[in-house]
Amino acid sequence: MLRRELLASIAAFAAATPTLGWADEPGLQVGAPARFDARSLIQRAREMAAESYTPRPKIPKSWRDLTYDQYRKIWFDSRNALWEGTDAPQRVDVFPPGLYFPQAVAMFEVEDGIARPLLFDMDVFDKTDKFPDVEIDDTLGYSGLRLRAELHKPRIFEEYAVFQGASYFRGIGAGESYGLSARGLAIKTGDPEGEEFPDFIGLWLERPTHGDDTIVVHALLDSPSVTGAYTFHITPGEVLHMHVSAHLFARTELRHIGIAPLTSMFLFDDTNRQRFDDFRPAVHDSDGLLIHNGGGEMIWRPLANPKTLQISSFVDVNPKGFGLMQRKRALEDYNDLEAHYHNRPSLWVTPGEGWGKGAVALVEIPADLEVYDNIVAYWRPAEAIPAGSEYQMTYQLDWGADPAPTSEAEPMRVINTAAGARPEGGRVFAIDFAPNDHMPEDLDTITKVVTTSAGTVTEGILQRNPATGGLRLAFTFMPEEAKLAEFRVQLRLGDAALTELWLYRWTTT
Prior knowledge:
By secondary structure, this protein is mostly beta strands. The protein has 2 domains: 29-400, Distorted Sandwich (Beta-galactosidase, Chain A, domain 5), CATH 2.70.98; 414-507, Immunoglobulins (Immunoglobulin-like), CATH 2.60.40. Helix content is 4%, strand content 41%. The protein contains 3 helices and 36 strands. The protein has helices spanning 38-49, 61-64, 68-71, and strands spanning 29-30, 34-35, 74-76, 90-95, 106-111, 114-119, 125-127, 144-149, 158-164, 168-171, 181-183, 186-187, 199-206, 215-222, 226-235, 240-250, 257-264, 266-268, 283-284, 288-292, 298-302, 310-317, 321-325, 346-351, 357-364, 375-381, 390-400, 414-421, 427-433, 447-452, 456-457, 461-464, 471-478, 484-493, 496-497, 501-507. Strand 5 (106-111) and strand 6 (114-119) form a beta hairpin. The relative contact order is 0.11.
């Protein structure tokens, strides 16, 4: 399942008369004005849900048939960016259609309650003489957008977020490299009958005023099962903050949806290094799922690249947050001078209200190459959403090196998991915990909790790790006849948790 290569969005919403941009370059051209506000977008989504789903027209075949190398021969000239040459604190670039993006996304500039469509114009792109001749017609539009702001120096606008492909978007904290993605909505992820990918078919960008750090982006979502209206308040910085408000309208009964879905890549680390003949010690965009559940537990679930599809469900009521994290952050952890996996962001989800009963779902898909996004995590409500009904939610997305909230009572974090075979049989697991102020001098006062759902485990050996300053717990697992086992490991001081709760699924296939 190739999560990075998804088909995207929509046809144009209205015909319009172009107006030229500034003199040196054409600039992005805009069309006829129309009134716009968030309430009208919600009403538009509500009306669409009452109608049958109609797929948007595809762009010409000459664009859809572009190869990867050909698509790289055309790119946006940033001198044509939206709001270039103005005092607006943000810049917006657009991406060409084609390749993995066979439909256009309608885009609008919004100022003082007036929306003007961004009209497709080949002149805003640069291209080499190797870019083939392509057909130009009224189905064409841009495939997505990139946001830029002054992150480090005045008048130097650096990118920090991209919206492109279905309902996918990516973000980074200042100075980071792109890694994992988020989506507007996931439907039937991992289901045998196949997944449904809703599209953001339109994007509305409110022009920020001079000195305003936040940009507001509205999105219209459409798919056979559901429509939706989204509003993003996006503030770049060392940690990129996105406040998301969404109104969903069910065309059909929604039995399996994913709220705040996150998509990432995990190929190998110290748990499965032996399966890959690679000079690098690890390859992944994220190394674990972190959950702060409604009961106050901090759960760390190391990610895996299984040999068969694995779906895990962490049942909860009103979760406090969850996210896909990249905790290994040293170059030597990956030894990759090009991919910069040590600089990929983590992404934390904080619900804006009580989400009730449900589960954090984790989908792990087998992968043999790092180009495949094979990890998905999301919140799955316990109750189905009936056809014809409306569902609302808000949440915060924080992108950065370590965006999860912390407190003085925070347990010792898991910083590494390693596994391997023992010559005498079984497998050894070694879990490293980072030091904190609650780590006692006397290790005998610590209770080791090591359990398995199948096979047998040893009590474990607890030692100080001089390399980390923290603790290492190592235990041996004997599978016996088991094909699958769920481990639950934690260090405790009396009745209190000293460490995060380490959960892991072991399988033979």
